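step=predict obj=Riboflavin synthase n=190
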Amino acid sequence: MKISAKIVLDDVKLGDSIAVNGTCLTVTEFDTASSDFSVGLAPETLRKTSLIELVSGSLVNLERALQPSTRMGGHFVQGHVDGTGEIVAMEPEGDSLWVKVKTAPELLKFIVPKGYITVDGTSLTVVKVFDEEECFNFMLVSYTQQKVVIPLKKVGQKVNLEVDIVGKYVERLLQCGVASNIASSLSMVS
């Protein structure tokens, strides 16, 4: 896939990671003179994300990888898409926009009110989870609406989702019995 962009190409090198709609991809070619770069798309990436729906001229969110020496002012986003969701409602309220997304129960279990979710690479705060509908919602303030692609999407379109890594680690630890081992150790100490 070839993408036209200017700012993300500052200091770019072959092999760098650039997230495209929240999907961490590897720069395979770039041309700073024409302001474009190319990334490879593996079959698994196309199966797991909404990138397969992009057409020539589609607008996308782009984000360079975080340098460990920079200030961190938000959520921890890896660019590892966990799956997709479908926009089921978009409702304005004042100059803000409510967005409701339906997703699979396997992802919804990691989504909590006031927790974070990454939608097409935009880290957002979840407002409410609707378990019975397999949905969650969030609100975009006016400033964010002007900087991301989500408001340009239509009801019925797919979005890439990345859930909180901490929730996935906790689930994995519980599956491996680590939590019960810790509890047993703590009771032995008491």
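step=describe
The CA atoms of residues 85 and 159 lie 5 Å apart.
step=end
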